[in-house]
Amino acid sequence: MSVKSRKRRQWPLLAGACLLAACVVILIGKTPFGAPFSWKDNTPAVAVATPLPTPPPREAMEFRMLDFDRGWVKYTDGGIARTEDGGAQWQEALGTDITAEEAGGTMPTGGPIMELLSLEASSGSAGQDSPKPLTVTVGNASLQVKQSQFLTPRIGWVLLASTKDSKNPLLITTDGGQTWVDGMTAEVKEAILKEKNHLQQLKMESALYGTKEDAKAVIGSKWKLVPDSAAPGDVVLVRHNEPGSITWLNKTYTLLPYGTGYFTYLPITMSAKPGKYLIGDQTLTIQPKKFETQYLKVTAEMESMKQDTGRIAADQKKIDLARSKSEPEFLFSGPFVQPVEGILTTPYGHTRYVNGKYDSSHLAIDLAAKEGTPIKATNDGVVALAETLYLTGNAIYIDHGMGLFSQYAHLSELRVKAGDRVKQGDIIGLVGTTGFSTGPHLHFTFWAHNVQVNPNLFFNTIPFRWVQPKG
C-alpha cells in the first residue's frame, strides 16, 4: 500500500478525534464540574455602598420648661420632643398636642416659683427681671437666640435661632446667663438640685409666718428682729440672711441655718436696761416693765429645803447637762398650747418673798389644778430630762430646737422619758405637788439659751408670728 493511500485513510479519523475533543470541551463548560477557562482574575468583586444624603436638622419653633425637669420643644414639621430630666434626654412625643397647662405662655414669668422668689426681693437675692438674651456665647462663638426662658434668676434655657449650632435642642445656664452649656452635665445637675432645695426651704420657712406680707417683710430683709420691741423677761427671734453670730449682754449667740435664713433666740434678761440697742442693721427697743410682788408663807420644814445646797447643786448639773444640747432646727410648726387648764396663781416675773424674806423673781407661771390632771406637751419636741429632782419634784424638760426648752415641775407622775419625741398635746404627766410646793399645781416656763423667758408670749402662736405691724 502506498503512502498516499494510507494518509487518505487516516485523515477522517483525525478529523473525528478533533471534533470529539471540541464537543468534550463544550460539554464540560456547561456542567457543574467545570467552568469556561478564562485568563481573567476570577476574585469576586467588592460591592461599594453609596452613602445616603444626610437629612437636614429639624427646625425648632418654640419651647417651654414647665419646671426644672419637664419641658417640650415643638418643631416646624409638627413634631414635639419632651424631656423629664431638665433637658438631659429628649423623647419624641407620641402625640402632637400640647395641653393647655403645658402651653401656657411662650415665655412665662409668673407661677409658684417666681411667687416664692418674690419673698426675697428686697434682700437683693431675687426680684430682678429675668434675663432676655438676644445672643449667647458658647466657646468662642456668639450665637443668635430665638427664645429664652428663666425659671429663676440663675437657671434658664435658650433655643438657638439655628438648630445646627447645638447638639441638643436647648442650651442651659445656671449662673444667670454668664455661661451656657450644650446639654446636661454633672455641674448643671448639681446647680439645679441646689436651686430646688433652696425653693423647698423657702416654701417651708414662708409657711411659718402669719401672712405672705409678714413672710416677705422678714425674708426680704438682711436683718430682722421679731419683734423689734420687747421688755425684760421677753425673747426675740433674730433672722439674718448670712451665717454669723450676735453678741448681746456679754453673751455670744450663733446664728443657725433654717429655711433660707440664719436664726437665734435673743433672751431679754430681767436685768436688761430699757433703751435702744443695735442688732445688725436693726434697732431693738427695750421697754421698761414693772412686776408685782408676791408673799408666800411655808412651813419651817419646807423653808429648810433650800438650805440643802449640795442636793440643789447636784440637780442643777443634771439640768444644765440636759439643756446643753439642743436640736439645730425648729422642731415645731404649729402653735404652742397651754399645758394645763388651771387657775393662774403666780404670773411670770413676780418678785417673791418667802416667810417675809426675799427669795427670787418667779420666772414661770403657776397654774393650780386638781391633782392628777393630765399635762400636755406645749409643742413638738424631744424630752431632754424626765426625773425626780429635789426642789422641782417630778420634772420634765422638752427641747423644741434652736436652744428653746419648756419646763414642767411638781408633777405627781411622769409619763415620758428622756429621748422620747412628743407632739403638741401629748400627755406627758399629771399635776402634782412634789418638791418645793404648797399645793397641786404646774410650774411652767420656757428657757431660751438657758435664760427663763415669759411663756405667755408663746401660747396660741409661734415666734415667727411675733412680727409687729408697721405703724
Question: If you had to describe this structure to a student in words, what would you say it looks like?
Answer:
The longest helix is centred in the first third of the chain and has 27 residues. Helix content is 18%, strand content 32%. With 471 residues, it is α+β, with helices and mostly antiparallel strands. It is elongated and about 115 Å long. It has seven helices and 30 strands. Strand 15 and strand 16 form a beta hairpin. It folds into three domains: 145 residues, no CATH class; 64 residues, no CATH class; 173 residues, Glucose Permease (Domain IIA) (Distorted Sandwich), CATH 2.70.70.10. About 5% of the residues have low confidence. The strands form seven sheets. Strands 18, 21, 23, 24, 25, 27, 29 and 30 form an eight-stranded antiparallel β-sheet that branches. A five-stranded antiparallel β-sheet has the order 9-11-14-13-12, with helices on one face.
Task: Label the overall shape.
Answer: elongated
Low-confidence stretches: 23-28, 30-40, 105-109
Please give the alpha-carbon distance between the first and last residues: 159 Å
Q: What is the CATH C level class of the largest domain, in words?
A: Mainly Beta
In CATH terms, what is the fold-level topology of the largest domain?
Glucose Permease (Domain IIA)
Helix tally?
7
Helix content: 10-25%
Any guess at the CATH architecture of the largest domain?
Distorted Sandwich
Largest sheet descriptor: 8 strands, antiparallel
Task: Kindly estimate the percentage of residues that lie in beta strands according to DSSP.
Answer: 25-35%
CATH-defined superfamily of the largest domain: Glucose Permease (Domain IIA)
The count of β-strands is 30
Which secondary-structure class do the elements indicate? alpha+beta
The overall pLDDT average reads 86
Rg calc: 44 Å
**How many separate structural domains?**
3
- The quaternary state of the protein chains shown equals single chain
